[in-house]
Amino acid sequence: MDELSEMAVAERTAAPPPVHYVGFWARVFASLVDSIVVLFILVPVGLLLKLAGIGIAEGDPYAQTLVELMSAAIIVLFWVAKMATPGKIIIDAVIVDAQTFEKPGWQQYVGRYLAYFVSIIPLCLGLLWVGFDRRKQGWHDKLAGTVVVRRPASLPQTTI
């Protein structure tokens, strides 16, 4: 057997690195941090819009939709850029593809965000599912094909 073949066999038989799924309470903490970060971004943006004469009037039926769209954009942009939100960065966690454990595509991230509504609507059961699932996946993770894991050593550290 030549050296190249031996290396290929060694790669196939090597044990995969251990995966540490991030559980319910760590993710709750990360979500609280994320809520604060999003608030700190949205409030100044809202003030700038108001100064520009584009203020959202109280009772405006489109106001909640605009806030939701801006929140979604912030979260998804963090996922695409860092594979994590600020809260997940603090707890050293990343969102990865459930099959390959590599960076998901932006389509998975958008799907994951939209799937939050599926997780939330039935009494937040899809979010609580993280506490009972063997891979710590919420329904949004299952629908998007993602898992939240502790950052593997193969991925570089991220800063906000």
What would your notes on this structure say?
The protein has 160 residues and is mainly alpha-helical. It has one domain (19-150). Helix content is 56%, strand content 6%. It has a two-stranded antiparallel sheet. The longest helix has 28 residues, at 24-51. It is a multi-pass membrane protein. The chain crosses the membrane at residues 24-49, 61-81, 113-132. Residues 21-145 form the RDD domain.
Summarize this structure as a short list of keywords or feature phrases.
160 residues; mainly alpha; two-stranded antiparallel sheet; 7 helices; 2 strands
List the helices and strands and how they pair.
Layout: H1 3-13, H2 24-51, H3 63-82, H4 86-90, E1 93-97, H5 106-120, H6 125-128, H7 139-144, E2 146-150
Antiparallel strand pairs: 1-2
Helix pairs in contact: 3-5
Protein name: RDD family protein
InterPro entries: Pra-immunoreactive, RDD
Pfam family, one: RDD
